[in-house]
Each structure stands twice: as structure tokens, then as C-alpha cells.
Amino acid sequence: MTTAKTAWLLLGAAAISLATPANAQELSPEDAAKLIERLDALEAEVTDLRAKLEAAEASSTQQAAAAQADATAASAAAAEAQAAVAAQAETTPAIAMKPTPEIEAGGFTFKPRGRLQYDVANVQAPDAIMAADDGLGTNTTLRRARLGVSGDMPGGFGYKFEVDFADNDVAITDAIITYGDGPLGLTVGQHNAFWGLEEMTSSNHISFIERAGFTDAFGFSRRVGASADYSVGDVTVWGGLFSSSIDNLTSDEADNWGLDSRIVFAPKMGDTQLHFGGSVHWVDLDENDMSVRYRQRPNIATTDTRFVNTGSFAASDTLSYGLEAAAIAGPLHFAGETHWQTASRPGMDDPTFFGGYAEIGYFLTGGDSRGYKGGKFDRIRPANPVGEGGMGALQANLRFDHLDLTDSGIVGGTQNAYGLSLIWTPMDYIRLMAQYQRLDISDAAILNGLDADYSVDVVGARAQVEF
Questions:
Q1: Domain residues of the chain, as ranges?
Q2: CA 156 to CA 229: how far, in whole Å?
């Protein structure tokens, strides 16, 4: 029976009940009996309907409870599936291209890295020197051919290992374990000893084929040691204790020990990045080999000829210190450094040698600027790279490079270099470089007949790819 029909029956019964007292005397016994029979049937139907309603309510409650249980079970299953997906994501390697594959899984990362730098250069000296030195003229060299890996580990740890295969030789460059916790960083292994802006800037990002003359002349190189760095705002401080390079740990130089430190203040004024810094370095030389030598190539590595050279002399320790400054303002940049190198000679005057450079560079392509990060110059990222409708970044640089290796009776010569370079970066990881340098040399270690003062011209080019 439908709900509407039941309602009409109830209303009819009520109406009959209300009408009965007023008209009872008019009902016959037969009519009264029929009415009573009808009321009994109606009561039975109401009772049956009430039972059905109660059963329906009970069934609805059970269905709701079952639905709630199903929903709870489905939610638990979804949460379990999500947890399983998250757990699988932690253990399943994720690969990103930067530009080589960087693999990440379980908090570990692994990335192959490397660089290739192929140089060709022509060195022209006076005729008498050219005739006597077959290392001059036009030569080529695989300047760097490095392969390595780097990555991060859980807990703030990291690692980096690189080997250089240039010149048919195998040499370990970086071999470090690192730890970082907020502004504090720790490094153990073979790494650079914070020599200054030019030396700390990767060879992938320098503005000439070779770094300034004093960096090579004064023996700036990687050494085995432990160091720390700490950054607060625009200031970063480095400090460390170092021995010799990893290749010399079994030689007499293994007993060389040194302290090195550097500080950099790198504020920004609007869109201009400024850089001011200084460094100090002290090395106690091994008593079995208390000697040093300072010399330099003609700012190119295709020849081993050194026109300035102090020769070897006895020394007990060395002290060097440098100042550095730079600015990047859109397409324009300035940079300059000075460095003094003092060698302590027992019972004799201590010579102090000096080197420095000043350079200016400008991008001829719109929207390009020199990169800067962590107290050093960084990668150039062309605004309009080749392959995306552009021509890449084109940069011109001018530099004056000075090196003086004469002092306190030691005559190693003076080399002044005036240079121009052009750098084309078609995309982030490829560079083509060309440069010209004019070297004016005085008191040269190699005589032109009887003349120790003359000029050398150097033209060079480099093709470079890194990853």
C-alpha cells in the first residue's frame, strides 16, 4: 500500500470517527457492524504499514552502516596505496638532464661531469729565439680532458671526483667529500685553497684562454686538506689547513703544510653585482726540499717556454696575500686582482714578487650578462641561444696582465701582457674563444742575442664543451 493511500484511509477513519457520535442513532445494526469491520481492517493495514516502515528504517540504517564501512575501507586502501607509491618513488630512480643525466633515488644523486678544451696557438718571438726554440710557433694541445662524477647524499653530505686525461697523463683534480648545514660548509680532500677570484673561477668560465700570469707563476693549485666556509648575508669566509697535491703525497713535498683563508663581500646595488675580497696564504716548506721557483709561460699552454723565470732558490716558507674586486652591471663587467708572493730565505733578504691584472668585458648581444655565484664568476647563459631562434652570446674582453719576478737580487724578469678576447657562447655548455696578446718582456730569462728586453705576440683559439 502506498503512503498516499494510507494517508487517505487514516483521514477517512478520522472523519467517520468524528461523525459517528452525532449520527449514531441513525445507523442500523447492519451498518454499525460493517463500520466496525471496516475499522478493524483499517487498523490491520496501519499495523502492517508500521511494521514495514520499521523494517525499511532498519534496512536503511544497515545499508548506511555498510556504506560507511565501505567508505572507511576504501579510504584506508587509498592511503595505503598512496604510501606505497611514495615509498616506491623514494626508491625508483628519477632522471633529469643537466645536461647529462642526473639520477636521484632515496636521497642520493649521481651526475657524470666533464669538460674538453682543445687549444691552438701561435707564439712569435724574435727570430733568434724562434730559431733556437722549437716549442714556439704554431702548436695545438688538449688543454683539459676531464671526466668525473658528483652528487649528494642524505644528511647534507656530498661528493665530487674528477680525473684529467690531458697530455697523455692521468691526474686527479678534485677529490672531495663535503658537508653542508645551513650557512656552514665543510670540505675534505683535494680542492682549491681559495687563492682568489681568478683562480677560484672555473676554467669553463674565465674570460681568456689562460688565467692571469701570477696564478700559474706563484703555483696556485689544488692541494689535499680540510676546510670550512661560512656565509652571513653578503659575506662569505673560507679557511683551511692544506698539505701538498694528491700526486705529491709520497714525495718530499708531502711534508709541506699551509694555512689558507679568504673573505668576500658581495653586495648588490640595484641590478649591479659587486664583489670585494682578499686572501692570505702561508706554506711551511719541507726541510728536505726547501726550494721554490717562480716562472710563467707566455699566457698560453701550447708551449713550455718560459720567458720569465726566477730559477730555483732556497726558502723555508712562503707568504702570499691578494686583493680582488669586480662588478657586473648588465652586459658590462669589470674585474681586477693584485697578489704579492714572499719567499723567506734563511740569512738573506726575502724577495717579494708581484702580479696583477685588470680587465673589462662587454656583451655585444642583447640580454646577456656574465654569471656570478658563490664568490666567483659563473656560467654564461645566452638569452637567445642557438637552436631557439638566436645566435647565442658574444662577448668582447680587454685585459692588462702584469707579472714582476725581480726583487732582492733575484732577476726573474717582468712580463706585461695586453690582451683582447672574443667569446661566443652559442648555448650554455659550449664556448668558442679567440684571443690576441702582446707581451712586453724585460730582463727575460731567455736572451735575444744580448738583448733581454723584447716583445712576443700570441694568437690563440679554444673550442670547449662541458657537461
A1: 3-89, 116-466
A2: 15
Burial class for 62, CB neighbours closer than 10 Å (0-12, 13-18, 19+): exposed
Provide the 3-class DSSP secondary structure of residue 95.
Answer: strand
Beta-ladder partners of 452: none
Comparing CA positions, the residue from 264, 300, 260 lying closest to residue 284 is 260
Q: What whole-number distance in Å separates Cα of residue 442 and Cα of residue 406?
A: 10
Please choose, from the candidates 377, 259, 262, 380, the residue with its C-alpha nearest in 3D space to the C-alpha of residue 327.
Answer: 377
Computed on alpha carbons and rounded to an integer, the radius of gyration of the chain in Å comes to: 42
Concatenated DSSP letters for 375-402?
TEEE----SS-TTTTS--EEEEEEEEEE
Which secondary-structure segment (H or E) carries 66?
helix 29-91
Q: How many C-beta atoms surround the C-beta of residue 93 within 10 A?
A: 12
pLDDT, one tens digit per residue, over 185-244 is 999 999 999 999 999 999 999 999 999 999 999 999 999 999 999 999 999 999 999 999
Kindly state which CATH superfamily the domain 116-466 is placed in.
Porin (2.40.160.10)
Query: In this structure, what DSSP letter does residue 349 have?
Result: P
Closest CA to 213 of 350, 404, 377: 404
List all residues 6 or more positions away from 130 whose beta carbon is below 8 Å from its beta carbon: 124, 136, 137
